[in-house]
Structure formats: C-alpha cells, structure tokens
Design goal:
With about 700 residues, the chain is α+β, with helices and mostly antiparallel strands. Helix content is about 30%, strand content about 15%. The strands form four sheets. Strands 10-9-8-15-14-13-12-11 form an eight-stranded antiparallel beta sheet. A three-stranded antiparallel beta sheet has the order 1-2-3, with no helix packed on it.
C-alpha cells in the first residue's frame, strides 16, 4: 500500500496552496484588467454587459427595529444606522398634514393613515412649510413596523456633484449647437415669451391633484378651468426657458430679466406651496337631477395621506422652476434676490420629496426593496436636478440611489419589474395591459436622470447591477415600442395599452419626448423609426413639464428658411379675407375678416391699427398684434401664423398657417399670402393675407 509520511504530506499541501494562490492571482488580475475596459454609450447593452466595469452589487437592506420610546428605528443596513422618527412638531392647522404619536389609530379628524400607506413608509408635510423650517414626520408602515428600513445603496455616496449647475450649461451648449436661433419658430417663441409682463405671470398657491369635475353639463367645471391654468403656467415656463436656450444671443438680456421677475413673483407669493398632495382631501358630492358623474372636490380641510407623484402636483412644475433658477444662477449670480429665491426653490424641492433617502421595503417581504416605479421616478429626477443646480450631494445621491434601484429591480432583458408585470385585476392600469404606459413614465425619468448624472462627469452606462445598465433598460423600451407583444411573457396579456404613443398631454412622462431629449444630450444612437414617429406626431415632442416647448429644436431643423430684415421699416396696408366654396350658391365666395396696416421691425410683422369684420363679434384692436406671429424670411416671403374666424358669427378664433404666396415684386412684400388651418386643403378653404401700398 502506498503511503506518505507527515513531511511529504506537508510538502504536498504547501505545493497545492501555492498552485491555488497563483491560479487565484491570475484570475484576480484578469478580472481587474477586464474591469478597466471602457463601455461606450453607443454600444448595444449586449456588448456593454460583457464587461464588468462598474458592476455594482445588489443591495438588500437589513431589518430595522422601531423604538417608539426614543422615536428611533435602528439596525438598518450595513453597517448599522439609526433613523429618527419625528412624530411631533407639526402644528394643528387646517392646511397641515398631521403627524401624531399614535399614527395607526383614527385621529380626531378620523383619518386612518394605514388605509393610505402604500409604500411602507410615508413622510408627511406641513403646507405652511415655506413660511417655516421644513419638518419631516416619519410614519412607518403599520403592517411591518419592525421591518422598516430605507433603501440606501452603500455605493450611492460615491457619486458627488463635481460641477454645480453644469446641466444648464450643457443644455444651453447643445441648444446653441443646433443652430436654430434665426428660424421663424424660435423668433416667434422669443417674442411670445417677452410678451409676458409681470402682471401676466401666472401662478397658483396650489391645486390638488384631483379637481372638481362635471359641475354642470353646460359650463366647464372648476376642474377643467384649473387644468387649463395649470397648462398655461407650464407653457409660460417653457416659453421662457426654450426662448433662452434656442434664441442664441437674440433677446438674451430681456429674457434673463424676465426670468428673474418670474422667480421673484413666485418667491414673494410662496407660489405652489400647496401642490404637494393628491389631494389634501377627497370628497364625493352627488350631482343633482341632471345626472352624470359625481363631483370630486377638495375643501382643503382634512388631509388625505397619499403620495403626490400621481398628481398634477409639484413634480409637474418643479423641473421648470429649478431650470429657471439654474439659468438665473448661471447668467446673473449677482441678482439682488437670488439668495431668497434659492431658499424658496429648495423648500419646494423638500415639499415634493418623500425623504431624500427615498426607497421602500416591500410589505410582504421586508428584506426585499420595493421596486422603483412611476410614483417615485419624478421625485428622484427632481432630487437630481436640485442636487446639480445647488451643488447638494445629499439630494444628488438620493436621485442616484433611485437610479440604482431601477437597475436592481430590472430583469436581465431590461424590463422593469415594477411596471412590466401581470395586472392584479382586469380594470387596473398597473401591470398587465397598462404595463407599457407605466413603463414609459419610469423609463423616461430613468433616462432623464442619466443626463443629470452624466453632467457631473460620470459614464452612466458603465453603472450596472446584475448585468443591467441604462442601455439595457432602453433596449427593452425600444423593443416593445416596435413590438408590444415582446412584453407578454411578463405581463401575461397579448394586448397592451399604448396611450403613451397617442396621449394629448404635453408632458414628457406621457409621451416620448424624453427619448429624443436624452438621446441628443448623451449623444446616443437614436432608433430611426422612433425618431420618425416623434417628429411626425402632434404631441410626442412636447416636454412642457421639463420647461422645454419642443425637444426637436435640439437638432438642426433642415429646410427651414432663416428670417431676414430686408423689409425692415416698411409700412404696408393689408386685408385678410376668407375664400370658400358656397354650396348653396354653387360658387366661390370671399369676404373680409380684418384690415388695417402693419410695419416691419426686426424681421417681424407688427400689426398696428386694424378693424375686425366679424359680424356680431367684436375684438380688441390688440388681439391681432398679440396673437399673430409672422416673419419675413430670407427670400422676402411672409411666413408664420395669424388668427381668424372660421365663420361669420363664431366667437372663437383659430390659428392659420401661411403655406403659399402670390408675389410679383421681390423688392416688396406686396402680394397675396394664402393660409389654411390644420387639416384643411387650399381648394376647400383658404384665408388670404393681401398686402399692398408699402412705403
């Protein structure tokens, strides 16, 4: 029998250890070398994930234990962390959400907090926080009180704000490089923005997320009126920001001064301070005998604990407000009131967040973080925006933490588990048939967040968890845009809602404007089919909640005539007529709508005295000057739009666009310029701007 003595055994073991040490060293250094490989944004995620560069490990928080005698939650994460629970400190005011020592029992206002607690934890707010110091009130989950811990990835603090306010500088640079500063659309945009005077600036103390609707069958409801105002506010912000971004050096001083005026108006009135809730209270009021739906209304009296992200709340206005502040800080850091404006915006950011350590733990499995979703995504984006604008690492890292949470909660094909999933029931818009709409919201903010992270010098596509990076998430989004059934393996349905492709709202979370914007900003390859779809669609390029009126302007617009001042100082007579075929008389008919004079200044047609011929309807003489947007292009043609009535006694005007001309003298704008409204043909209906007697 073959045997080894002790010395031989020891020698053998030593050789074995040396072998494995050498082998492990080779493997280690090969992995190190592999980790140094660079990943380019333009690469496919399949190629990108072959590298381990930037691979971040999945993080699962540990259980925490609530101690109510000391108002603490201890033992969260690794190493152990302690979080303070603040139950007190919120005064009993009608406009105030309430924090109480016994949050799970009905309060004197009969509010059952647990009924509204959907995320495991909730930070409540006081509505007068803009007048006082912010106060956080943690309300841990009543279902898993011993297991609440915030989701904070241990590596999120590695990313810091290295270049404060750089996002607006890069955005401005991108806009300038597009070279669209002298096209009629941009000039009209700038003129429209500058038409706002301080007295015209719109703001609200607050809306609730749900407005009163269906007040009567004949009159627009209060809710409809408020929604229109909300859209007009975002439009004002977007016009100011877009005009600043795209008009080059044209009108810059005037625009910056108006931006300063806008922010001063917001700040002095504590505008939007009640926009943090959905809504403060919800009541149902039955309609009278005229029938119809019940009326939702808000009496601003009883708080309803709900998260604001599903609303028309602050997350619809804050990006624009933060961008306005970023512009002012960049262009006019010496502005007299800039410190007060900063404090005001910072408090709005605080009102919108649900804890800058935002992250939740699943109720059913406390050791598993609850997926980031469309409820949290907009807040995370705002955190990043403010972090970059103000140079605040804490808010910046909160947004980074959410970005990591999306990666961690994605499957290997890039689908986001919280959105692409089976539906709890046939009517639910969450999961199932509604998956793609919700995924578009989360994916959109995920991509926009990547822009902000990149603005601080980080290569976002080199950040991956379990093989998933941003490119992988986007790849799934592109795939399901082209073939929605690719999501069926996860959603368990064949047919999916695709409202995000056809939604009429002008906000990027409801359309694909985010795709074009983030792709341009990060210089990534754009899917040609999606780009064509965005360019041809009516609303897909509108991102007014981000403060951008048209994301297509970040790319050179080919075939667009440049404006010209060749006819400056000319004064001309004109009349506007309507041409149409009269079926009753079986002949063409034409009648005058408006007439007067105009002058040409800075390439723009500026209407002076004018008279409307509108039957029983009378309009102010300033209606046409304030509404029309007509410019002289480099060929001496008039381009743009002007308002008209579609019939003799209609009370509403519509905008018509000049599409052709009949001119005989290249040295004068005299001639006929034919315009049509959207969806019409010249042979069916035309409005004629006839110009004569220029001097």
């Amino acid at each position: 029998m073959f045997t080894l003595n002790a010395q031989e055994i020891s020698l053998c073991l030593l050789k074995t250890k040396i072998f494995y040490f050498i082998l492990s060293s080779i493997l280690f250094f090969s992995l190190v070398n592999e980790s140094l490989a660079q990943i380019k944004w333009s690469n496919s995620s399949k190629d990108s994930n072959s590298s381990k560069k930037g691979e971040w490990k999945e993080f699962i928080p540990k259980k925490g234990q609530a101690k109510f005698d000391s108002n603490q939650i201890v033992g969260c994460g690794s190493p152990q962390k302690t979080f303070t629970i603040l139950f007190d400190g919120t005064p009993e005011l009608p406009m105030c959400q309430i924090g109480v020592k016994e949050p799970y029992k009905k309060t004197k206002r009969d509010i059952d907090i647990s009924e509204y607690d959907i995320h495991g934890t909730m930070r409540t707010k006081c509505a007068d926080a803009l007048d006082k110091l912010p106060q956080d009130i943690f309300v841990p989950s009543p279902m898993d009180i011993d297991a609440w811990c915030p989701y904070i990835h241990p590596r999120s603090n590695e990313l810091k704000v290295g270049n404060p306010n750089n996002f607006i500088r890069e955005l401005k640079s991108l806009a300038t490089s597009a070279g669209n500063s002298n096209i009629p659309k941009v000039n009209a945009l700038a003129k429209s923005a500058l038409n706002f005077g301080a007295q015209d600036l719109l703001w609200r103390k607050g809306f609730s997320g749900l407005f009163p609707n269906h007040a009567t069958d004949k009159e627009p409801s209060y809710g409809e009126k408020e929604r229109n105002i909300a859209e007009n506010i975002r439009e004002q912000q977007s016009k100011l920001i877009s005009a600043y971004l795209f008009s080059g050096q044209n009108y810059q001083n005037e625009l910056i001064n108006l931006i300063e005026t806008t922010l001063n108006t917001y700040q002095s009135n504590n505008a939007f301070e009640y926009l943090f809730n959905t809504p403060l209270s919800q009541h149902i009021k039955k309609r009278s005998a005229d029938g119809g739906e019940g009326e939702l209304f808000d009496d601003y009296n009883v708080p309803g604990f709900w998260d604001n992200s599903a609303t028309l709340g602050l997350n619809y206005y804050l990006p624009g407000i933060i961008t306005l502040y970023s512009i002012l800080k960049h262009e006019k850091p010496e502005a007299e009131n800039i410190a007060q404006i900063r404090e005001y915006v910072q408090k709005l950011v605080w009102l919108n967040e649900q804890g800058i350590d935002y992250g939740t733990v699943n109720k059913n499995n406390p050791l598993t973080p609850e997926s980031a979703n469309h409820h949290s995504a907009s807040r995370a984006f705002i955190h990043l925006m403010w972090g970059v604008a103000d140079g605040d690492d804490q808010f910046f890292q909160a947004g980074v933490n959410h970005f990591l949470s999306v990666l961690q909660d994605s499957r290997s094909d890039g689908s986001i588990r919280s959105e692409i999933k089976p539906s709890p029931n046939a009517k639910s818009t969450h999961g199932g048939w509604g998956s793609l709409d919700r995924n578009n919201e989360t994916l959109g903010y995920h991509a926009l967040s990547a822009m902000l992270i990149q603005s601080q010098g980080y290569k976002v596509n080199e950040i991956s968890i379990s093989g998933v990076n941003l490119a992988k998430n986007l790849e799934f989004g592109v795939t399901t845009f082209l073939d929605p059934e690719k999501a069926s393996k996860w959603t368990k349905v064949k047919n999916h809602s695709e409202k995000y492709k056809e939604h009429k709202r002008r906000t990027t979370n409801k359309n694909l404007s985010w795709y074009l914007l983030s792709s341009r900003f990060m210089n990534s390859q754009i899917n040609a089919e999606i780009e064509d779809f965005i360019n041809k669609s009516k609303n897909q390029w509108k991102a007014e909640n981000l403060g951008i009126i048209d994301v297509r302007l970040f790319h050179p617009i080919e075939g667009t005539a440049k404006i010209s001042n060749i006819f400056d100082q000319l004064s001309c007579g004109y009349k506007i007529t309507k041409r149409y075929f009269d079926k009753n008389m079986n002949k063409d008919h034409e009648y005058t709508v408006n007439f007067g004079r105009f002058t040409v200044k800075d390439s723009e047609i500026q209407f002076g005295m004018n008279i409307w011929k509108s039957g029983a309807i009378s309009l102010d003489k300033n209606y046409l000057p304030n509404t029309a947007s007509i410019f002289v292009d480099e060929n001496g043609e008039l381009v743009g739009t002007f308002p008209v009535f579609t019939a003799r006694k209609k009370e509403k005007t519509v905008s018509v666009k000049i599409v052709s001309s009949e001119r005989t003298d290249n040295n004068s704008p005299e001639g006929k310029f034919l315009a049509i409204r959207e969806g019409k043909k010249l042979e069916d209906e035309a409005f004629v701007l006839q110009v004569n007697s220029c001097s």
